[in-house]
Specification:
By secondary structure, this protein is α+β, with helices and mostly antiparallel strands. It folds into two domains: 3-149, Jelly Rolls (Sandwich), CATH 2.60.120; 184-409, PPM-type phosphatase domain (Phosphatase 2c, domain 1), CATH 3.60.40. The chain is built from nine helices and 18 strands. A hairpin with a 5-residue loop joins strand 14 (303-305) and strand 15 (311-313). The termini are far apart. The relative contact order is 0.09.
Amino acid sequence: MNEQELQNIPLFAPLSIENRQEIALVLHPKRLSPGEVLIREGETGDCVYVIVSGELEVTQAADTSTHVLHTVGAGALLGEMSIFDQAHARTATVRALTDVALLEMTHDDFEQLLHRRPELAAELVREMSTRLLQSNASTIQHLTAKNRELAEAYEALKAAQAQIIEKETLERELVRAREIQRSFLPRAMPQLAGFDFGALMTPARSVGGDFYDFIQLDEHRLGMVIADVSGKGMPAALFMALTCSMIRAEAHRWKHPVDVLAAVNRQMIEVNQAGMFVTMIYGVLNGSTNQLHYARAGHNIPILVEQKADARMLDFEKGQALGLFGNPVFDPQTVELSPGSLLILYTDGVTDAINEEQEDYGEERLLASLSAPLPASAQEACAYLSAEAAAFQGTAPQFDDFTVVAVRSS
């Protein structure tokens, strides 16, 4: 190593030519290959190194892992504490990332220089101190940036944990909401001489807006309800609960189904600030006459399956949903359930079921399913329709709440 080469190294550039010539005598060239370790953490060393070219990685062990502190290149000073204290343990590991050229000065070389040229040694120490301060400042800046990143990561972690807790809380609340919603449904099928009843409801989400109900009016008359609240999820479930309470109250006050729906609509208009609406069928089944008098408020048309006959849609006229108009038009109808017949009430979650090809299940498929030999009980008929719709749907997600009510006359 000669004086002219040292002039290109920032640490030695400020020195005089004579001093650089003196320094050149105690510097030993050294080369490293990629991956080769120059300094190992925890070991003692008696050499200081000046990087001429190449790049090295400085790492430090932490628990069971290793952290990269920074990388260094040409002009960097490494192991400077060994000049002053041979017993000083290395605080980090330094490994070559590329081919590296460096200059090595031992503790003995430095002491000889100190005795031979004390003013040169002092000047060199000043330059080393300046370089060390610059390196420390850079390290502090790097650590500050890392601390900022860690603080941001910590805040993000806290936010993520809060979201997890909120999600778990919401899931528990949804489970409770589903239990509450199911408590609004009949716990058992009603008993009316000459008739068998069945019902099945599958929400598209944890909670839904469909509901059905049976209301015992007297010994011979049974109120029947099936309804579908607009929307899905929690808002629809809350509006469903409100509507269910209204229909139960009004069913005992009014005799005719049209009057019951009109009374429910008046209450709904007063409290409905969200613009929601409900399609519904409310009917009164008379066990003495085998007749069902019902009114339809924009709901799906009932289907009747008579003994030795295909399934057919019942007659209908215009019927408007509840909650939209002050004086809606309802569709009053009467159907007689002859022995062996089966009446099916359902929500649009049945006919609107979509398969992988984005095809609707539709009324034609529903009628075809009901024209096939059906199970003997009304509940089994509901389960049969659910299985048919699910088979059609395949792997496609459930589009809407699915509800079906069946009445079989014996």
